[in-house]
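[job 4471] stage=fold_predict status=RUNNING
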Amino acid sequence: SVSVSVSEDIVVAVIPMNSEDRVELPIDIPLSRLQDWLIGRNWVPKDYFPALKAVKANIDSVWADVPGDVIGEVSKDDVTMFEANRILTALKELKGFNEKNMLGQYTSSVTKKWIEIVKGFEKDNIFLADAAKHLVHNVSFEVSAVRKSITRAKKKLKDFDSKETDLKSSASAHKQAFTAECKELGFEATSTDGLTDKIRSMHMQLQPLFESLVGHIQSDQFRSALNYFNEFIAFTTGGDEDAVHMPAITTLLSDGDIAVHTFKTGEHVDVNNNIGCEGTANTENSEQPAIDFGDAPA
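[job 4471] inference complete, writing structure tokens
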């Protein structure tokens, strides 16, 4: 047997010598001349191609009859002696292809055809020439393409790693800004979970603020300052001392905390600034008048 290893453009073939010690000597063979070397050393006949073409034709004729799980991922154009042996071994173990007659011959036409294909490869060692052709092609083109693909993949991975670092940094900065904004609004939050309810609950802080403002406005000191302001305006302008120059503050002083609607129209409405989150959320589901966009016929 001949063992072969490939390094760049040199094929190292280890040839067993016919001696008592079975000394194996490595031989460096230029990759591009591998087939010529096999022919020159009489490993394969010079006119091997017609025989190899006949084997390939047999493969093409029986290829469609071989189960897909036996073929695997190999294509019929890439079948070498090694793949043919693998497929034949699988067929011999597969029900429907491994039956034999009383003479010990396989009854399946597919199995018999693959036996013929393997024998065709073995005859005159033409499988060596075929394998050499595939070896030269793979080393010259496929390996080069794979190397380029690996280089491109490594570059993409490097770009993705850089982008991931930038995105993580950006996410961390946005999270810090989000936390800071929430603190400015008066509550703690590290995620958006429950954020809507927290924002809606902020209006509950308004009622104590309103009550505090109204309390200061209705104090004797503020009332005295407002009277002094009105008297000063009346004195300097010659106007009526009973004229109202600050209507909003005057209304809060006399009526307390009222709605803006009441202040502007005089119509009384009830205002509850202590509605909880649940009550606020329910307003979204309350019945609202439908808007007619003119899409549906009247």
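[job 4471] summary: DSSP finds twelve helices and three strands in the chain.
[job 4471] exit 0
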